[in-house]
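Lab notebook, bench 4. We co-purified these components, and the gel suggests they stay together. Before we commit to crystallization screens, I want a quick structural picture of the whole thing.
Request: model the full complex, all chains together.
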Amino acid sequence: MAAGFCAAVALWLVLDPSLARLLLEWLPYLARGFAMNILISVLAMALGTLAGVALGAMELSQMRLVRAPAVAYVQVFRNAPHLVLIFATTYIFPFEIVALGHYIPFPDWVKAVIGLAIPASAHTAEITRGALQSIPTPQWDAAKGLGFSRIEALRFIILPQCLRRALPPWMNLTASICMGTALASLVGVHELLHAATDASTAVSRTDFTVLTYVTVLFAFFLFCYPVSRLTQRLERRLAR
Amino acid sequence: MIRKTTGTKTTGKKTPLRAAALLAALLAGISGAQADATLDRIKAKGKFTVGVILSGAPFGSIDPKTQEQKGFNIDLARALADKLGVALETVTVTPPNRVQFLQQGKVDALLANMQVTEDRAKIMDFPPTVFDRAGGAAIGRKDSGIKDWADLKGKPVCVSQGSNFTQPLIEQYGAVVKGLPSQPESLLALKGGTCVVAVHTGATLGLMLEDRADEWRDYGILIPTEIVPADSVVWIRKGEKDTAAVLDKALRELIASGKLLEIAKANRLLNTAFIEEQQKTLSAAR
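Here is the predicted assembly.
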């Protein structure tokens, strides 16, 4: 289906070379916008994963004081729409920090990273918790019997197994966060969707507007498809 | 927040002391203010930050060749920055975020195709000098039979989200308004038959019809009058009197000297009658 779609677009460009020229002219501009989406998704996932793994471990803590806040955080932010979180971080944080007469900017894209890292961390926490709980408890006992300390058991026996189980859902999350970066355009981040609007406004040709959105679709597809294919392969390998 | 920014300089032991010193410095900075906050910022940064909208030529768009911003809004912003003797920084704004950007202080002023309305005047201020007058024109198929604003009753009309034409279209003319993210989407919806007409700033539509006559040959500006023609002004935060005074003086000079007309012509504003009129009045008053 994807191939058919690409062929249709290619045919359209061949039939209207002026449109192809326009697209070529605007591609670098669109690419710069898309670089922002990639940057935001990579940073949001990195931050979200670090925080999420810690939160997931906290959720399983035997101390209520540690467990309760983590569970509350995860429940609240796992169920909040990404757009709401992006709006919240954008309008709650200041746009710049004034210190000793210096104005230090706090750019919107950083806020978008935080806005997406929050749901990413909540989801990663659940993935981590699920993976940790999926390891049968006798394994802990067996490790203890073999003379491993609790930390050593976690490091050498439990975590390697968790990682394999957590990877596929984590990659699904990556794809979803990546697509969520398009929401950042609504708070003024200059990403692909923003660049697409700029391009279609400047050219002011309706067929070009359609083509620009097709290009946006294609860019996200190119970024997310390999991730989803890799997930499928990993799932198959782990199922064996 | 504050501590974080100075984190690189702070040593562990002295942190509370440094923080206190910093706070004192900040407070001194605030109480020592000469003009209003916006003007102080402009001077301290050496930069006039203007929110501009890239909603299409002649007002603002990206130049395909240089991929820089160009248009009437940008040139006017630059001329104002020159008058203030500082550099210009532009921030692209969109109808849904422009007011927040101004109120957050992210931009010092807005040149974002926003005409004076009662609602806007309640939450923002503007230097009294008007630099243009703009209203909405309705573009639609020539064979649609629409000849007057009253003909839009009960019919679907496309606009950009946050457009000030929405309210009169609904309240005065009973149209069914559909707000689309921006002008290209709205025009696409018009072509797709989602609405009978699309209503956007007259100057933008006029220039598009002239430049892309072939693509739009079945379409035209259907109604001879414009909807809610209103004054285009520079919007600033509420209560910034000194900024308003400085900008007003700059605007008057730009208009009287003919510089504004020059900017308008360079950006191909089709109808410059209002600016010419303003120029006459202001240069006579000098």
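The longest helix of chain A spans residues 17-59. Worth comparing against the SEC data before the next meeting. Chain A has a mean pLDDT of 90.
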